[in-house]
Amino acid sequence: MEELITIENVVKNDDKGNAILKGISAKVMDGELITIIGPSGSGKSTFLSLLNRMTDPDSGIIRFKGKNYLEMNVLELRRKIGMVFQVPTMLSGTVRENLLIGPKLFRQTLSEEEIDNLLEQVALPKTLKDQDARTLSGGQKQRVSLARTLANKPEILLLDEVTASLDPTSSLEIEGLVQVLHEQQRKTILWVTHNLKQAKRVGQYTWVIANGKIVEQGPTEEVFENPQHEITKEFIVTAFDQEGEIQ
Ligand SMILES: Nc1ncnc2c1ncn2[C@@H]1O[C@H](COP(=O)(O)OP(=O)(O)O)[C@@H](O)[C@H]1O
Ligand SMILES: [Mg+2]
């Protein structure tokens, strides 16, 4: 299995110089689905944004297939490593126009067949192509957002709380779509979620970020069944208390 992303002792500070991420080292192998959990404010979104080069580390190195991020073309990198956010932002125009945004940056377009194919991957009817994207429901917008990222044919998907704003049914539907992308297209996925049941259900591996560090990482089953770190134990136990038994 190929090593896709290598993170070497990455530090990220806020504008005032306070550490948000305090030295993170990790590896992402081709085809893995990693769920990332941890208390709110622990640095999860900051971590994902580094992997997509929305921001750069203050020190440390991030590599894609061995190549230092800083030596790569940013657009090319973002194309290979796509990100989807909690709140889908639709640009003005139709669903079709929203899907064409990514390819346009590379002076490319999508055929109607390719657009249909993208809609199929996110289980949206073709008839939505000509609809104003801003009139869609929250769940539909998140599907378009996912399809827009898939239009760039990314190798890696970074998902930041992508189901957090959705009702339970839409949330499970998006979850299912992502699992299909992982299983059928072998997409490598890093998925930040505060929904621990979801993290347990979908993850092969789970990383726990707390206080700007990865305090625990391992196969998802092990992390949930037998957490080693005090912070993980407390975090998971608290969630048990709040949500009842984790299934
Ligand atoms: N641009 C920024 N400037 C200053 N502080 C920030 C910035 N982005 C995030 N932070 C702070 O960094 C910490 C981690 O935030 P974040 O990565 O969003 O955590 P999480 O996604 O785990 O909830 C928080 O304390 C947050 O307030
Ligand atoms: Mg966050």
From TrEMBL:
One GO cellular component this record assigns the protein to is: membrane
One of the GO BP terms on file? phosphate ion transmembrane transport
Q: Which GO terms describe its molecular function?
A: ATP binding; ATP hydrolysis activity; phosphate transmembrane transporter activity
| Pfam families (alphabetical) | ABC_tran
Q: Which SMART domains match?
A: AAA
Cite the ABC transporter domain residue spans from the record. Answer: 5-236
SUPFAM superfamilies (alphabetical): P-loop containing nucleoside triphosphate hydrolases
The record ties this protein, via InterPro entries, to: AAA+_ATPase (IPR003593), ABC_transporter-like_ATP-bd (IPR003439), ABC_transporter-like_CS (IPR017871), P-loop_NTPase (IPR027417), PstB-like (IPR005670)
> Keywords assigned by UniProt?
ATP-binding, Nucleotide-binding, Transport
| Protein name in UniProt | Phosphate ABC transporter ATP-binding protein (PhoT family)
